[in-house]
Specification:
This protein is α+β, with helices and mostly antiparallel strands. Helix content is 16%, strand content 41%. The chain has helices spanning 21-29, 63-66; strands at 10-17, 37-43, 50-54, 57-61, 69-76.
Length: 81
Amino acid sequence: MQLSELGKGYSAVIERVGGSGALRRRILEMGILKGTRVYVEKYAPLRDPMELIVKGAHISLRVEEAAQITVREVVAGNFHG
């Protein structure tokens, strides 16, 4: 499943970060790494961008960028880091 497909209030574990070049490097620098748990806090009114919680930090990511990230262990409910 792609990170961009997660609904508000769901969390998952990063399985793979795709993309290339500066975009991929930027995503990795934000702490979105394989094995990291992310939580979808909310979406903007037109569903782009999405706000994530990663390692306690709030990060905004465009849905197009989130589509490059594969996740697993999708769980609904509260985020517990």
